[in-house]
Amino acid sequence: MTAALPPEQHAPEAQRARRLLRLSWVLALLVLAVMWGGVIEGLRQRQSLLSAQQQTQQAEWLRLSSAAVDDRLRNLDKELQLFADDQPSLARDATQLFPLQGGSLWLVDDKQQQQRRGQARALSEAAVQQVRQWLNSPAVHPALTLLPLPVLDKRPGNSELLQVVLPLCDQERCHSALTGFLRVGELLDPEQLVDHPAYAILDINGSVLASNGSMDFNGQNLTRVATTRLGQVPLLLAANYHSSQIIRSFNLFALSLLGVALVLSCLLLLLMWRISQILQHVEHSSSQFDHAQQLLALTNSSLRDKMRTLIDEQRDQQTLIETVQVGVLIVDAGDLSILTSNDAAARMLGMSRQMLQRQTLPVLFHARQRCDELLLALQEQQIVTDREAQLNNHNHKICWSMTSMRYLQFRERHAIAVSLIDITERFAHAQRLQDEKQATERALAQLQATQHELYQRATLDDLTGLANRRHFLSFAGKALERARLANDTVAVAVIDLDHFKNINDRYGHAAGDAALQHFADNLRVALPDSAMAGRMGGEEFALLLPDTSLGEAHAIVDVLRNGIAAQCFHTDGQQLQLTFSAGVAASRNGHAHDLSELLKLADKALYRAKANGRNCVESIAP
Known about the structure:
Layout: H1 7-81, H2 90-94, E1 105-109, E2 113-117, H3 125-136, E3 145-148, E4 161-169, E5 174-183, E6 198-202, E7 208-211, E8 226-229, E9 236-240, H4 244-296, H5 300-315, H6 317-323, E10 327-332, E11 338-341, H7 343-349, H8 353-356, H9 361-364, H10 368-381, E12 383-392, E13 398-410, E14 413-422, H11 424-459, H12 469-486, E15 490-497, H13 500-507, H14 509-526, E16 532-537, E17 540-546, H15 550-565, E18 569-571, E19 574-576, E20 580-586, H16 595-611, E21 617-620
Parallel strand pairs: 20-21
Antiparallel strand pairs: 1-2, 1-5, 3-4, 4-5, 6-7, 6-9, 8-9, 10-11, 10-14, 12-13, 13-14, 15-17, 15-20, 16-17, 18-19
Helix pairs in contact: 1-4, 13-14, 14-15
């Protein structure tokens, strides 16, 4: 054994170790300071670069957003012109007045207000007075104008609303105006609002007319946001746009840089900790050596004493088994006879402990095959945990158990420990839940069938089975919007059955209904799958032909006309023949994607077909 160094030799080594440790800590702190200084400078430069990129993207966002606002205001101006006249029209019925709030529109003059469109409600007095004051001001001009919401109407949630005014002027003055309300966010395309920019509509002087509430726009902080002039109205669009992609890029760079710096810092601190551990090891090496000597001093006699203690503890296992609340059986691994059990197992099986110890394990299972499965799994895995099994209760009650098995040595015999947890109530509850689930699924299926029937009644014409007027206009409007985005061509046709009133007057309304059904059946057979037909009212029908040019649409409708004219149908012993007149119009790529405009053109072509003697198809280009 190596002799221990005297204390006088240990002291200089310990002092040198302590001095080296202090020097190491100074160098480590210096390295950390330099490294974190570089990290801060790198983040600052990266932030400057991304700020410049952010300004470029903000300018591009303003350009695209102002174009979208001008486009939607231009379309709104065209649609509002349809309501300048009191006479209704099919084109005005198809107008959605998007993005007016609720599609509501009022006509205001010096004496009264009159609602032209939307759910019936009165225009607020503040809004009426604002329109009348504007009509009497010298700044009025016959063009679409956006005014701020009246002060009395600026309740919470209305900060983004603007009042739209279109004056109706003659040669002398503007005596009345159409007005409604729109939300600034509706003027922008949804993809332009993905990054939740702060935006506002300002007048030429920089006063805020409306904003989305994300930023306090005023004359003092307009220098920190970007603005652009709108072309449709003399207003400014201001925005503070933050690209989520740039923010994520900066966050990823910052996290990566900070992560590397943290890892290096941790490694350096770990190294310093290891050096401290080495010093402590040097100081305590003598005590650790003495402790090892004491462990080696244990004799064989003490080990035998501990083994006897373990044997005594094993004999006390029966007492422990009897105290637990889980049912426990100790079974002989050879003949599967029950060696002992506790009171919990006896209560679960409805037997006394003496009666239970005269049984074998398979007898306790309701199905012998289930017992064999668990014993086979025990032989393969050496332990079985939480397996469901139905047991035989001596009182003829249903008893379900969560069963576990494992091998052990019991009284110097190879045995199996079986634990039983009563789950009868849990099993019954699960069955009740399953029954309730099936009942709920049946109710949901019935509800879905009812909803489908209601949808059919709301969207289809009861007599012909075609789309009703409201559903056709809604579907056609959405189809035209998709065509505008995809730069596709869409055709529409307006059809009117010739002399239909004569059929009703001469043969009765039953014959008229049969004629409408006959015509609808031919429509469904003759039209392509992508087309949609709708009954607009009486004997008037409309067709929507997506991705179809004007010539193709004319040919399709003409083939349908020839097929109808060549057929006869019978009703109440009468043989009748139908003809129709039709007008066709189609949009050009990128232009005239407006349903009211297309239907107005198709109406003109229909009147031309009637003037040419009926039973013909006329088309008109936008």
